Every structure is written in C-alpha cells, then in structure tokens.
C-alpha cells in the first residue's frame, strides 16, 4: 500500500458571509516542494495560507497532512513570515528568535531557566549567524534595515524546525538588490532543510525563479450581477526547476566555499 501524500487539499472552499473567496481547490503537494503562489490582488492567496497555517478552517472540504486532518491551530510545525510586522519590536534580535524555543519548550511559563535557557540562546545565535545576523544579536528590530528584518523573520520562523514554511510576500517591501540576496538565502535554507514551502508573491519572475511549482489563482466564473458568488481556483499548476528537487545533494556541496555552517547543524535536537 502506498503512503498517503504529504499534503492534500480536497475540494476546499472558503467563504465569508456569502462572499466566496476560494472554490474547489484540489491539490496534492509532496514533502520538500517549493510552491510559489501568484494571482490578482484580492483573489485569496493569503486566505489559502491562513488555511494551511490552521488560522482558519475551510467552509467546505478538507486539508490533510499525511492523510490526517491538518491541525486546526497554528503550531511549531508551521513557520510563517509576512511582508512586514513578523518580528517583535520590543525584543532584541536574539530574544526574537530564542523566544520561539522558550514558548515551545516551556509552553506554560513561556520561559526557560538556567542551562536550558542558555542552550536555547546558543541555538538561536547559531541560526542568526547562519542567516547573516551574527553581528546584530543585541540590536532591536527598529535598528535593522528592511532586509535584515526579513532575515530575522525567517530565523524566527525556522527556529522551531517547522516542516512547512509559509511566506506571504516576504520580500515585497525590499529593494531589488536586497531581494536577490534574500532569494539566494531562502533557496539555500530550503535546500538545507528540505522544508515544504508555500510562498505568495506578486513578482512573477520571483515565482518562476524560486519555485519548483507555480500555482496560479484566478476566478474562472464571474457573474457581474453577483461578483461575490464565485471564488478563485488554481487555474495553472506549472512544474519548474525540477532538477532542484531531484538533486537531494547535501548542502555542503551546493554552497559556495566559505559559506557559514549549514542550517542543519545550527538546529540541534530540542
Ligand atoms: N476574515 C475575513 N472576513 C471577510 N472577508 C475576508 C476575510 N479574509 C479575507 N477576506 C476577503 O477575501 C478576499 C481575498 O483576500 P486575500 O487577502 O486572501 O487576497 P490576496 O490574494 O492575498 O490579496 P493580495 O494579493 O492583495 O494580498 C478579499 O476580498 C478579502 O476582503
């Protein structure tokens, strides 16, 4: 008997007070795929990410992870990065990342003490080093550039070692040069971790360059008399950059010489 697919979206609909946003979504995604999501503004891409995150339940249909219903609340298995405001302004860079470990390892108090606290801080510092923020551990988010803030948001999302990473236009507010650096970083991290990624972008070339699969959301049915009666569907599902999936190469052979240590070794067992 073959194993259940990693993620299955089965006939999912989402509507708010009769306003149908998404309709008849059917999708199977294998572990380690990098899906980029594009579509007109307001067609429901972020709504789809919220369903994957477990922030919302679908009006109809089901989302299955390895054959079992996806947990209906956000948890450490899913990391998320938004275009802005992912990081906590009142915490230092180091604390912004270490807190993810404190909250998962000490869910009641939300704080660790003694050696465990130190271990969490060391682990967070190594990951921050990996994303290029080793020099900024004690700064606050307001003291960082936009690109550095998004590096921090990515580290924050990855510290709990999620198996799915959800990115909602994470580089939308960055300058083109900085975006390129962030693309390289994201691809490196994805290759190291073999995470399953869903990334919303308005930039088609970003979608084509980064993804192993491009999902286009669009409304197929439109009724001018009742514009909210129909939602968007996935109208194109385009395989891309498939060689990256097949390579399975360890990161050390993919990274240029002198690159900081691979993420896998920055993320010790909890
Ligand atoms: N909680 C909600 N209650 C009511 N309507 C909602 C809710 N969440 C989303 N919507 C509506 O669903 C539609 C899709 O919104 P969504 O943010 O998912 O689109 P999007 O494709 O991500 O847009 P953009 O590309 O502009 O970010 C919008 O019309 C929005 O107003």
Automatic annotation (TrEMBL):
GO terms for molecular function: ATP binding. The keyword Membrane applies. It comes from the Bacteria. Keywords: ATP-binding, Cell membrane, Membrane, Nucleotide-binding, Transport. This is ABC transporter ATP-binding protein. CDD domains: ABC_NrtD_SsuB_transporters. Transmembrane segments: none annotated. SMART domains: AAA. Residues 7-244 form the ABC transporter domain. It holds the Pfam family ABC_tran. The keyword Lyase does not apply.
């Amino acid at each position: 008997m073959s194993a259940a697919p990693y993620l299955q979206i089965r006939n999912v609909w989402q509507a708010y007070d009769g306003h149908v946003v998404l309709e008849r979504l059917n999708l199977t995604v294998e572990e380690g795929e990098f899906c980029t999501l594009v579509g007109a503004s307001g067609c429901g891409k972020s709504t789809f990410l919220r369903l994957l995150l477990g922030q919302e339940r679908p009006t109809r249909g089901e989302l299955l992870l390895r054959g079992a219903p996806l947990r209906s609340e956000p948890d450490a298995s899913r990391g998320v990065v938004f275009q802005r405001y992912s990081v906590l302004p009142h915490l230092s860079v180091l604390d912004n990342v270490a807190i993810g470990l404190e909250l998962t390892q000490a869910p009641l108090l939300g704080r660790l003490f003694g050696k465990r606290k130190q271990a969490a801080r060391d682990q967070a510092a190594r990951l921050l080093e990996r994303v290029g923020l080793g020099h900024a551990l004690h700064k606050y988010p307001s003291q960082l550039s936009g690109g550095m803030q998004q590096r921090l948001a990515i580290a924050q999302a990855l510290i709990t070692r999620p198996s799915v990473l959800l990115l909602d236009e994470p580089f939308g507010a960055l300058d083109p040069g900085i975006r390129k650096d962030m693309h390289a970083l994201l691809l490196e991290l994805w290759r190291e971790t073999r995470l399953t990624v869903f990334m919303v972008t308005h930039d088609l070339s970003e979608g084509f360059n980064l993804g192993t699969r491009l999902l286009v959301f669009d409304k197929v049915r439109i009724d001018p008399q009742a514009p909210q009666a129909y939602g968007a569907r996935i109208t194109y599902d385009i395989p891309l950059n498939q060689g990256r999936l097949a390579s399975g190469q360890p990161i050390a052979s993919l990274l240029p010489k002198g690159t900081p240590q691979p993420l896998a070794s920055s993320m010790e067992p909890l």
